[in-house]
Amino acid sequence: MEDELENYSTVYSKISNSSLSLPISSHLIVRMLHGAEEDIIGKIEIPSGIAKKYGRKNLLAVKVEGDSMNKVILDGMIAVVNTDDTEVQNGNVYAVIINGYANTLKKIFQYPDHIRFEPDSYNPAHKHFIYKDDPDIGIKIVGKLVYMAQDLG
Fold first, then answer.
1. Residue 127, CB half-sphere, CA atoms under 13 Å: how many?
2. Integer Cα distance of 111 and 143 in angstroms
3. Which of 147, 153, 151 has the alpha carbon at shortest distance from 47?
4. pTM of the model
């Protein structure tokens, strides 16, 4: 029995120590997607399996601010998005930049003539919003939410 516990401990230690560090950004901005580092507020350790599955270079970690998605991810948590997954599948959660600076993390529904951003919140003040196809409104899908974490320190 003691040998089994020791083996389990060794395996668990290898699994729990297998992680990768990602920088955490405080906001999504277009400049950041091209290597700007002025918004880096820290680092997060993510399981190496996440990096293997999506590719480390495709992962972006952002601190969540607000309660518009608090049924899915809480204020202050870290959202990790896969920047290689930008083709909207209705109902999934994506990080988005609107007009180059406004950013959001929402469930998205895309239609031929518009896109709808849907909050998932216990706060009834949050409502969905819609953008019709308009060349004056720039919408950049940054990536799909693939991992989230909370700093408990």
1. 3
2. 18
3. 147
4. 0.80
Q: Which tens digits make up the pLDDT trace of 22-53?
A: 888 887 654 444 444 557 888 999 999 999 99
Beta carbons of 25 and 42 less than 8 angstroms apart: no
Residue of 20, 89, 91, 93 lying closest to 58 (CA atoms)? 20
Q: What is the mean pLDDT of residues 6-35?
A: 58
Q: Which residues contact 105 (CB under 8 A, 6 or more apart)?
A: 62, 64, 68, 69, 73, 79, 93, 94, 95, 96, 145
Task: Tell whether the torsion through CA atoms of 2, 4, 6 and 9 is positive or negative.
Answer: negative
Q: How far apart are the first and last CA of the chain?
A: 35
Cα separation, 71 vs 121, in Å, equals: 5
Integer Rg of the chain from CA: 18
